[in-house]
Amino acid sequence: MTQRHPFEWLSPVAQKRAFPALLIFTLAVQVGMGVLDVPLGTEVSPLGIVSFEFAGNLSFAKTILEAWGPAGQVYAGLSLGLDYLFLVAYASCIALGCALVARGFSTWAPSLSTVGVFLSWTQGGAAVLDAVENFALIQLLLGSERAIWPAVAKWCAIPKFLIVAVGLVYMCGGAVAVVAAYRRADPGARTRSGDDA
Q1: Is residue 175 a contact partner of residue 101, using CB atoms and an 8 Å limit?
Q2: Residues in contact with 114: Cβ distance below 8 Å, sequence separation at least 6, in sequence order
Q3: Closest-CA residue to 169 (of 89, 112, 127, 106)
Q4: ∠ CA(111), CA(130), CA(42), 5° rounding?
């Protein structure tokens, strides 16, 4: 690979070893956020905290907060606080996954490898958007009446989810394609652990 991704400071072997740990950590934090999100699912916020992220205007955001009540707002605050850890975890995990898949593509599909390196870098942007979104939502939880906050949250959430979704599709679909190509090229690969992907 000629393109440089965010994990060049790790050796290829270290990258492969770090990915499972990052994935497990990301899933563990996601489970914790899922538990906190259970009380936030109401008629006006069927998607829990995600509904709050996409409220878009102050009136609807306040309706969600009222439906949650004081106890629900505490859960929302805890969820947003934990999300600062989650955004680091998922962005790192997807970025590394994209970088690994890009390396697998590098020998036989350079254009797809370039896409993977680009997507690896964009996950940092998703994390920044998520952090700004969380800040905006926390302002609402603290009682701010400024109409800009729900709008900021929504317009950070939309590209954030898009970047993450594209990264996940590339990472998962690309991993399948790389493994399939490797096995076609080397039928004995099933019994060996190579460094190509």
Answers
A1: yes
A2: 3, 102
A3: 112
A4: 120
